[in-house]
Each structure stands twice: as C-alpha cells, then as structure tokens.
Amino acid sequence: MTTKRKREILVVAGDYDRAESAERGLPPAHFNVHIAFNHRDALYMYGQRKFDAMVIDAAMADRVSGELTMLAMKELAGDLPMIALGLDEASARRAYQLANSVVTSLDHVEIMRAVSNALSLKMQSTQEVRIAASGYNGASRKAEEINTLFDLSKSLTEVLDLSEVLNRVVEAARSLTDADEGMILLPEGEELYLRARTGIKVDAARTFRVKTRDTLAGEVFNLGEPRLIGASGPQKLKTQYFVNSLVYVPIKLQGETIGVLGVNNREREDLFDEHHLQLLENLASFAAVAIENARVHQESLERARELETLVAASQVVNASLALDETLPNICKQLATVLDVGYSEICNWDVDHNRLNTTARFYQAAWRFGQGPTIEMDLNPAVAASIKADRPMWMLATDNRHPKEASHLSGLGAGAMLIVPLQAGGKMLGAIRVYYVNSPDSPPSAESIYHIRRIALESLVDLLNRTDRIMSSSLLKLATEINNTVGADWCELSLWMEKRNRLIVLARIGNAVWLRPPYSYIDLTPFKDLTESLLSQSPILNTIEDEGITPGPRTLLNWSQSQSILGIPLVQRGKACGLVIFADTERQRQFTARELDMARAIVGQAAMALENASLVHDLEEKVAELKDAQKRLVQTARLSAMGELAAVVAHQINNPLTTIIVDTELLLMDEKPGSDNYNSLNAIMRTGKRAANVARRLLTIARPTETTTPNERIDVVDTVRGILSLLKTHVERSGILFDAILPDEPLPKVMAVKGRLDDIWLNLIMNAHDAIVHEKQKDGHISIEVKYTEGNRFIEVIVTDNGPGIPEEIRERIFSPFFTTKPVGEGTGLGLHVCREVVENIGGRIMVDSQPGEYTRFVVALPIAVAQNV
To answer: Which domain range does residue 738 map to?
Structure first.
C-alpha cells in the first residue's frame, strides 16, 4: 500500500482490546490513529481535527442518553468513510445500515483491508500487513504507551463516575502490560475488595477479596511499596487462585495509599519487568487523582441527594397538624431517609416504665425462605384456617384462640383476617391482615375473594421464577390488599409443608395508635435501654454483634430484623420516646453519615409531633369544653328538676300527713279485725310508705352547703332508704335485685347527711342502665354491706353482671363529664360525685370489671373514731 501522506483515522471504542486491535491494524508508517474511549470524547475529537475515516465500535452508546455513537457520528460526519466493528450479530446488523464496511472480528488484516478499501488505497500483501501490525516495538511502542497514558489522563479528567474511572484505569493497565488480567482493589474494613476488573472470570470476581494482612496485595497497601514477581513459580493471591507473574503498585494520594492497581498473567508464561512496573506506577498516579475527583463528586451528589431527601421529608412531616395524619407521614419518611423497611415511633411512658408504640411503618421484605416463621403449633387459628382452606376473622377478645389473641394484643391489633392461599389442591401460603381498631364487620366475601386471587397470582409467579428476589410488585400487591380490605397492614407468607410452618415473605402497611391499648415494650428488665434514653445516646446493633446487651437484642426480636438503629426522641431537651429504624434484609452497619441523617429527621419529627400533639390536645380540650357546656346545661336542668321534685315532695307530704293522722283517728274507733279496721290500716301503711318516699326525695334534692358538718350516719340505714326508692323500679325492668345487709348494728361513719345516699343511688342506677342498654335478659344487681370486727372500714359492694367496663376507659370513668351513655341520657358527673364524697370523708372507691362478665364497685368508708371511745 502506497500513500503520499499519513491518513488521519479516528478510532472510537470503549473497550481497550478493540481499540488496540484497530490501532495495530493501522501501521504508524501510513496512519495517524486517534482513539476516543467514550461517546463524548468522540464528538469532541471530531470537532478538533479533520479525519479521513472513522473506525467505530458498533455496540458503543452514550452512557447517559443511550444514543448509539455510530448514529451520532454518522449525522455529524456525513459522507466521511465509516468502518464499523460489528462483533456481535445485533450490532453488526445495525452497522450494515450506516457504515461503508463492517468488520466482524478483530483480525488486523481485516481491519487494514476495510480501511484501505474505504479510502481507495492500494492494499499491501497480507504478510506485509502482519509485519506492520506486529512492529509495535521500540520507539513505536514507547510512543503508543505515552499516547495511551496521555489519552487516558485526558479522558479521566472528563469522567466523574467512579465505576467508569476504575474500569478505564484497569483496562489501560492490562493494555499497557499485555496482561491476562487487570484489577483494582479498594479497602473496606480489614479487607481489600475487587472494585474493577478485566480478564477475570465473573465467578472468581464475585467473591474476590483479600485480607489487608498476610497477602501480597495487603503488603502493597500497608507498606505503600510496589511488588513485581516474575520467574518465581505460581503465586497464590487467594484460596485456589494462582498466577504465574504479577505486578502490584499502590495507588497513592498525597502520600496515603487508597488502593492497589495490579496485573496478572494467569495463563500466559510471559513475565513482567521493571518497565511494566514503571508503566503501572505512572498509571496509578493518574488514577489516584481521578479516583479522588470521582469520590468528591460522588460525595457531593450524595450529600445533595441527602439534603433533598431531608427537605422533602421535612415538608411531608410538617404538612399536617392532624396527629392521625402526621404520625404515618413521619414513620414513612423515617424509613425513606435511611432506606429501611421498618420504622417505629415509641412514646416513653415513664409512670409505667414502658415504650408505647404510637406509629409503625412496614415495607419489609425478607430474603426467600429467611423471614419470620409462623409455627402451626403456636398458631392454632392459622392452622385451622389452612386445614379448612377457609378465611377466618378473629378479634383480639376472642377467647377461643388465646394464643392468637395474645399475639394480636402484643401487636396492638384489635382484629385479624387470615386468608389461606391454595391452588390446584396444593397449599401455597397465606395472608394475614391486621386492624388496629376492629371494624364493625369483617371484610366482604367479594373483597376477600379479590385479595386471595391477586395474592395467588403473585405467589405463583414468585415460585416460578429462578431468582426468587422480592420485587416491587410484591410491595404493590400488599398495598392493594390493604386498600381493598381497609387494613392497617398485612403480611404474605409461604407454606413450607415439610416443616409445617409458614415463612413470611413481606409485611407492608402503616398503623397509628392514638389511645390505648398500645403495643408496648416493658423497660423494667432492660436498664440498658433506659440508660440510652436518659443519656440520649443512639442504639446501633446487628443480630450477630458480639456482646450485644439484652435491650438491643429485644429491639431486634421486636422488629424481626437483622440490624437496628434507635434514636431517642427529644422534646425540649428531654427524652420522651424512641424512634426505631430496622433493616429486615441484611446486617447493616449504619454509617456516621446515616446516623447524622437519622438524628436530623428525628429532630424534625420531634418538633412536628410536638406541634401536632399540641393541636390535638387543644382540639380535645375544645371538644371537652363544648361537651362540658352541654352537660352543664343538662346539669342545670337536673338541678331544676331536683328543686321541682323537692317542691312536689313537700306538696305531697302535707296531704299525706293529713291522711295518716285522720286514718289513725279513725282506727281508734274501729275494732281490730273488722273490715273497716283492716282497710284503714292498709291506707295508713301505704300513706306512711308514700311519706317515706317523699322524705327521701327531699333529703336527696336538698342542696348541701360546703360548711355542713358531718354527722354520725348509719350506713345500712342509708342503703335501706335508697332500696325503698329504687327496688321496685329496678325489678320492673326484669332485673333481679339482691340486698345483703347485716342484722346486727354496725359502727357509724362520719358524713354529711344525704351524701351517702348519692353514692348508692348513682352506683345502682349505673348498673341498671348498663344492663337495660344491653337488653340483657338475665340481669342481676346486688348490694352488700360488710364489716369485720376490729377493721377500720365498712365496705359497701355493688355488683352487676352487665357488659363490664373496657380497660382502656377504666381510669377515666371518675373524670367529670365522662360518660358512655348516649347524648341526653347521662351527665358524666355521677361517679365523679361518688369519688368526691368518699374521698372527702377519708374513704376510697375501687372498681373491678371483666368485659362481658361483671362490674364491681367497692366503697370503703372509715368508721367514726368516737365510736371506739
């Protein structure tokens, strides 16, 4: 081939082997070869120089936009001859449409022939081409090496992606040294990890890591000195990994070793020399600067993303002042910021020394077969549902399955739906759906059918896949299940027939607890957790940490996770709770940066929670005030009715006195036993009974001054007085009414006259109303007066077998204006008045109740001290 001048050729290839092969097919005696290693370099170099032809890798594309480099260069260069390297069928097919010719191998002769034909040059003999292609030695080779380093240095200044920088460096190392393999090792903890490679098989690369001690690479890293090993026999790099020759050089930045660059000959017998060592050292110096630039850029991007995430999270967290909206938002954002599948906000109840869950977020997936297990022996309700292949609805108060009821109570759930998943007569798994507050009725059959169908489809798809990786589709499935049945969270489990258990695959949802019963952790056995709260120090642990203390271990078990991060929730400088972050998939060491982010978002959450709590409390107080105003109006009405009752009783009492006196006079004129005598006697008894009722009404209705002195009161007499008013009324409602009163006189108590009557009246009427409201047919109320000689208190016990008092409101029943009765039927003052009266005379009132079985009030009244004198 003869030419009058050297032709300028632009070679575009991101792979060094391809670029080198193209360059070797174009001898420097006839061609000036310029290499662009990426899409951007190609566009830039074309604009800086005039070329005679282009050799382009047909598979190369822009990393950002995905645009084919060959297509972009064709549009830019127009009719400039283009030779494409189509080394696979797909890229070759595309290349035939754009290029003047397509070379399907890296053979030097084929590349030379294609370029010569495109430029209409006379082709040399094949032998001459091969001699020219193999003539890269001496000055030519030296120039090639310098150009390679120069081009690499220039391209590295334009690349800020760390992975691309590492790949370019390692490809250059292999190209410059003609090595079998090239690699870059970077430190992570006590080991060096393979971060970029060329020539190393995928299986070997996947687990390629070496210790920083007692290894050749570790020695180079620790000492900062290169190692060249030539004819010394096979060298072991790691277990069962031997090479014939190697060069390792430290990658240094400002005197500090940040990694190791190395090349190996594993198959070839060629040995490396000092020249190769010098080349790698030069390359490592370029690499150090490029790696640092990429790291700085990557860190700035990460910090920008973190800041953006924190700002977005802050906006979401503070988007609402409604506590029931704020808590779920905060929980979700907490998990998003740290990329975990579980977050929980706990309130520290100092009085009971426990952490009460107020909000919890699940987006947890476990590796296939590694999730929490649901043992059939410990979950009989689940076992029964699976055996019958029928959905089961269960409440936390269901006494038929105490183990599951205890499980629900521990989770703070009021109800659960179990849906078995069976296909073709084979059990595949199950769904468990949870509700914090039990709905009025279970989900409809149509809803259950829908979630069963979509869950089966997803589970079958998962089992048929080879990778068995939890995908985003599984999270979407769980979200759809929650939305369909109106649940707070759900979990999807896989059936393991041989082990007779279910294994949880995923758990998704968001739950809030604004009032008891809470899910809680008792802190009494865990002083380490209490100390963390008091010192406001974080908790960081993984499941396999050595020396892990009981508190963090409990948090790991509680969240069923591999790693845990606990950040105390601080308001006004004082710890008021704990925020838990948990990674369910991997044992993760949270970094200092992540810890700072967690503290930042928890600080935002603390302020948002405090604001939302203040608004929530204010709304509750306003509602209570409005309710109190309504009740005060009702109380005023009752007071007016009491005054009216007193007037009516007084007006009735005068004619009754006349009737009784006149009847007694008439009886004096009648003979005992006569018909008139018996009739008059009956009239007198009835009149006295009516007069007694009027007297009791007057006693109850008459207002008592605060300065009214205590008197010696017979407790039994006050009880009998109220019985005379209420017994008939109670029994007319179909309620059995028993009074157990002692026959012998009891010590007196010191109280304001009429005040004790208020207690018995309120307790009996409350019991009556509760039974009547439930339309209970076998209602029973009893009142018993008990006293043991020598005791300081007389006890009055009022018991009923009505619906009982739920535990969550038991502490509030004595609060003023608190009532469970419908509007207009209760004032909410009765029990409050009872407690005030009892406590004013030094007594106490206690309540014991079992929902669905009974309620028992015990009033203990101190006997008058003067009685013992």
So the answer is: 704-868
